[in-house]
Each structure stands twice: as structure tokens, then as C-alpha cells.
Specification:
two-stranded antiparallel sheet; 145 residues; single chain; alpha+beta; 16% helix; five-stranded antiparallel beta sheet
């Protein structure tokens, strides 16, 4: 009887080990949590509109792989579906820096669009600057349809 219990326990341990090994070799699923607030610069240089977002990019499950994000897109659907739909592109990444002397903050670019590495133990908190050329917004009805 002791031989069967030992053999059964060893097979269960082997099964759990194989499952863990297979799970760690899989591709991580990336979870994107958008911020509650978005910074918008409507009169950027050249008449463009800038949207500044700082999403949290993290892996949902533990793997030994690292996900590489090479592109980010922002889509905006206007309330007036007959109007032009803006096309945003990822312009650069950076941070807002506060200047104590002028009592204001300004955007400081840290890099052009570049690959972002995402793993479970190190979520990414990059701030993206999306740009829309030849598009603007103005006052209007903000009711949900």
C-alpha cells in the first residue's frame, strides 16, 4: 500500500510541475488600465491637438516571458458621426515637470515612440503623447447617446 501512495503522490507532483512549466512558457496577457484623468492640449504648436495619457500596462499572469509593446493607438469617436474622425498617432513619451519659479508645469519629452517592456513584476507607467493633426474640438453637447 505504501508503494502505491508514494507512486501516486509522485505522479501528482509531476503533473503539477508540468502544468507550472507550461504556464510559465506562455505569452503574457497584457492588461491596460486607463487613467481617470486625461490631459488635453488643444492649441499645441502647429494647431494640433495633444492627448496625454498615462495608462498602467501590466501582465495578468506570471510568465518568464516579457511582452514588448511596439505601438499604441488612440481612437476617438465624435458624438456627431457625420463629422471628421480624428486620427491620433503616438508622438512621444515623457513626463510633466513642475517649475517652482514660474509656478507652472510643462511637458518634458523623454523619448520618441520606442518599445515598452511589460512583465508582471514591473508594470509600465509611461506617459504617452498622442497627436492629431488638422483636427480641433470646441464647445458642444456632451450628453451620452
Amino acid at each position: 500500500m505504501q508503494l502505491w501512495i508514494t507512486t501516486f503522490t509522485g505522479l501528482v507532483a509531476l503533473g503539477i510541475s508540468l502544468y507550472n512549466f507550461a504556464a510559465l512558457q506562455g505569452t503574457p496577457d497584457v492588461d491596460v488600465a486607463l487613467p481617470r484623468l486625461v490631459t488635453i492640449e488643444p492649441r499645441a504648436p502647429g494647431g494640433a491637438v495633444h492627448f496625454f495619457l498615462q495608462p498602467t500596462l501590466s501582465a495578468r499572469r506570471k510568465t518568464e516571458s516579457i511582452e514588448v509593446i511596439t505601438d499604441a493607438q488612440l481612437r476617438l469617436v465624435p458624438a456627431d458621426v457625420t463629422g471628421p474622425r480624428p486620427e491620433f498617432y503616438w508622438l512621444d513619451s515623457g513626463d510633466y515637470v513642475y517649475d517652482f519659479e514660474s509656478n507652472s508645469d510643462h511637458w518634458e519629452k523623454s523619448s520618441d515612440p520606442r518599445p515598452i517592456l511589460v512583465s508582471q513584476d514591473k508594470p509600465s507607467l509611461s506617459t504617452f503623447n498622442f497627436n492629431a493633426d488638422k483636427w480641433s474640438f470646441g464647445p458642444g453637447d456632451t450628453k451620452d447617446r
